[in-house]
Amino acid sequence: MLSKFTTAALAATLSLAATAALAGAGDYTFEPVKAEMKKGDDVMLAVRLTNKQTGKPVADAVVFKTRVDMAPDGMAEMESAVAPLPSKEPGVYAFKTDLPMAGRYQVTMSVKVQGEPETVTGKVVVTATK
Ligand SMILES: [Cu+2]
After folding, report:
1. 34 in a domain, yes or no?
2. What is the Å distance from ligand 1's center to 115 Cα?
3. What pLDDT is attached to residue 19?
4. Ligand 1 centre and the CA of 113: distance in Å?
5. How many domains would you assign to the chain?
6. How many A from CA of 96 to the centre of ligand 1?
7. Taking a C-beta distance cutoff of 8 angstroms, is the pair 61, 112 a contact?
8. Average pLDDT over residues 93-116
9. Which domain holds residue 74?
10. How many angstroms separate the CA atoms of 65 and 69, rounded?
């Protein structure tokens, strides 16, 4: 017969195993297609979304929130408007935005991935040059 302690330890082990088997919001990588570009208005930004477990691009995600600001350079309040652009490549999500000054911009994206119950959020940093 199992002692109370052993039963509890077994239950904890089982729940850990169940958690590890599910894909989670942390199993995706966001990276800029181009990390550096010239500053200006109507700049195209593209972010590649990859499933870490399979190494494959995630083509069917729905991007429902995108924010571009200068948080990496201490200007989080300096936010740019963002307009989605059609994707030219599976797993690549493109936007039009303004990068009015040289420096680093953070792109924060919230997406829904097919079959993934959690919202997936990622941040990428791009640099605008003069
Ligand atoms: Cu700024």
Report:
1. yes
2. 38
3. 46
4. 32
5. 1
6. 17
7. yes
8. 97
9. 24-129
10. 13
Q: Measured in angstroms, how far is the CA atom of residue 98 from the centroid of ligand 1?
A: 11
In the numeric block, the tokens 């039009």 are attached to 96
CB 121 within 8 A of CB 75: no
**Alpha-carbon span 39 to 127, nearest angstrom:** 9
How many angstroms separate the alpha carbon of residue 61 from the centre of ligand 1? 30
Please state the pTM of the whole predicted model. 0.81
For the stretch 9-50, pLDDT in tens is 555 555 444 444 456 788 999 999 999 999 999 999 999 999
What is the rounded CA–CA span in Å between residue 40 and residue 100? 5
Q: What is the CATH number of the domain that holds 124?
A: 2.60.40.10
CA angle, 40 then 48 then 77, to 5°: 45
CA 104–ligand 1 middle distance (angstroms):
8
